[in-house]
Specification:
With about 210 residues, the chain is an all-alpha fold. The protein folds into two domains: about 35 residues; about 130 residues, no CATH class. The chain contains nine helices and no strands. Helix 4 crosses helix 5. The longest helix has 26 residues. About 10% of the residues have low confidence. The site of one heme C (HEC) has 23 residues, from helix 3, helix 6 and helix 7.
């Protein structure tokens, strides 16, 4: 009898742990249960929170970053710059690839901003030696698949009457709140086709396959 009770107890505990894990991961937008994890480490720890975030500095989970007194870190020149996504990803609204900005664009600020920061020193070294930064790709469709940013940005900016930078989160989640970019949405074939069907976009094989 005692054995049975403890067995039931273990089952209930296991069930609770599973539910709690699910709720926590769903809450923070990191569906551990479905197998997405943190994005890859990058050669320079470039935080979107600092550059694209607005207002107080944010942690990776989107919660406010607190100072020593437990208050949200205040907005100043050094935090939450609120740069537009297309300021850096210049081709997103006009070309197939959104593109990653050059070292030169970063240096327009970092010639002067960030003395003594190890990550920014790496950036300056790259600029001095003319070496591009070998960023690790986070999203990549296989070679036989054709993806075009331009068509998507045009469709959703026109449909919703919003600027390009407000369309990105549909597929990429809240990048402005991510310290390290991670994939937020499956972007597998069924995901692409479902959205095409819902929006009256073409679903014939040759739309997406060469
Ligand atoms: C100051 C320049 C800058 C701004 C502003 C910026 N990004 Fe980025 N973004 C980068 C750099 C550099 C990388 C490559 C390093 C990395 O992945 O963190 C990147 C990577 C990404 C990636 C991952 C690309 C891949 O490899 O799959 C996405 C998605 C992205 N940015 C979306 C956005 C969105 C959405 C915004 C606006 C909310 C934004 N970015 C604002 C510079 C910027
Ligand atoms: C419009 C100006 C501007 C541009 C463009 C810009 N940054 Fe920054 N960056 C800043 C400011 C301001 C800070 C905050 C500096 C601080 O906290 O001392 C910062 C902080 C950083 C940090 C340190 C973050 C931390 O808190 O540890 C890194 C790394 C960095 N930037 C990399 C880059 C890279 C790489 C690019 C190009 C893709 C870039 N920045 C483009 C203004 C800019
Ligand atoms: C309809 C979904 C969708 C939307 C909307 C979208 N992306 Fe993407 N993004 C993707 C996919 C899929 C990839 C991988 C493409 C590939 O491998 O060729 C990608 C790749 C990227 C990359 C890395 C490769 C590249 O193209 O340079 C960046 C940076 C990026 N997106 C930024 C953005 C920004 C910024 C926006 C908003 C202006 C945006 N994306 C809107 C789906 C989307
Ligand atoms: C959030 C919804 C959504 C998602 C997710 C999405 N698409 Fe689309 N896609 C659209 C819509 C809407 C259009 C039609 C745009 C138009 O009318 O020009 C489109 C158009 C296209 C086009 C046609 C571009 C052209 O030449 O006109 C291609 C190719 C494409 N999508 C590929 C993909 C692939 C591959 C994926 C997944 C990796 C994907 N899409 C994910 C909504 C989506
Ligand atoms: C809206 C875009 C879209 C359309 C339409 C589409 N596919 Fe795909 N397909 C994809 C994407 C994205 C992938 C890659 C998924 C991944 O990342 O593994 C893919 C992968 C595949 C694969 C490889 C499967 C695998 O597991 O690697 C095959 C085969 C395929 N598609 C066949 C088709 C056929 C046949 C059609 C027409 C009935 C079709 N696709 C229509 C987007 C599309």
């Amino acid at each position: 009898m005692a054995g049975l009770i403890s067995l039931v107890g273990v089952a209930v505990l296991a069930g609770t742990v599973l539910v709690v894990t699910f709720v926590i991961s769903a809450w923070f937008g990191r569906p551990i249960v479905f197998g997405y994890d943190d994005g890859p480490a990058q050669p320079i720890a470039f935080p979107h929170t600092v550059h694209a975030g607005v207002g107080p500095l944010l942690n990776a989970d989107g919660s406010p970053r607190l100072d020593e007194e437990g208050q949200p870190q205040r907005v100043n020149v050094m935090s939450g710059l609120g740069l537009d996504c297309t300021f850096c990803h210049r081709m997103a609204a006009t070309e197939a690839a959104a593109t990653i900005p050059s070292v030169g664009l970063c240096m327009s600020c970092h010639v002067t901003v960030g003395d003594g920061n190890d990550e920014i020193e790496k950036l300056r070294q790259a600029a001095d030696t003319g070496t591009p930064i070998d960023w690790t790709r986070v999203h990549r469709v296989p070679d036989h698949v054709h993806f075009v940013h331009e068509a998507h940005i045009r469709f959703f900016t026109e449909r919703d009457g919003v600027p390009a930078s407000q369309v990105c989160s549909t597929c990429h989640g809240e990048v402005a709140a991510m310290t390290t970019v991670r994939q937020d949405r499956s972007l597998k074939m069924s995901d692409c086709v479902d959205c095409h069907r819902d929006n009256g976009a073409p679903t014939d094989c040759t739309t997406c396959h060469y």
